[in-house]
Amino acid sequence: MRRVIAGQFLGFAGIVATSLIGLWAALNIPPAWFRVLGFLPLAVGIKHLFHVHKKGGQPASKFNMLSIAGITLANGADNVGIYVPFFAISRSYLWMILSMYAVLLAAWCFGGKWLGERPIALRFIDRCGHWVVPIVFVCLGMYILIWQ
Fold it and tell me: Nearest to residue 29, comparing CAs of 37, 21, 40?
């Protein structure tokens, strides 16, 4: 479990660092074009809604901390596309957001462990969980397009 949590934090740190570099680039976009960033999460969410598929995998016990971090970072490309516009519209709260990400990442790791020990929860997540993230992405994209 320590390897998994450490790998998650290391990989997520890479995602956040990449997103902050993207934020720096996005801040150089003229304000009139800023709303266009909303198309990133919208497109990612729609793509995931139409390309939902089952993923098989190995248990985390087969991986070391660096491989878990690498998997987290590799799977985080979509996150970067979401975080850049989110960070840009929330610049004044960025440190609070990043602090909450760290706290929530730990909570998700422990919550995932707890849920992983419950067969009923696993069946529900396996059946419906793949819809949640794309819907959140679409909602965030619409928020940026409409209200920013």
Answer: 37
The per-type count for the chain, helices as H runs and strands as E runs, is 6, 0
Average pLDDT over residues 125-143: 81
Rounded to two decimals, the pTM is 0.69
Share of the chain above pLDDT 90, in %: 24
CB of 12 within 8 A of CB of 108?
no
Q: How are the residues of the chain apportioned to helix, strand and coil, as percentages rounded to the nearest 5?
A: 85, 0, 15
Q: Six-digit token pair at 67?
A: 């491989």
Report the alpha-carbon distance of residue 110 to residue 5 in Å, rounded: 9
Q: How far apart are CA 131 and CA 4, in angstroms?
A: 24
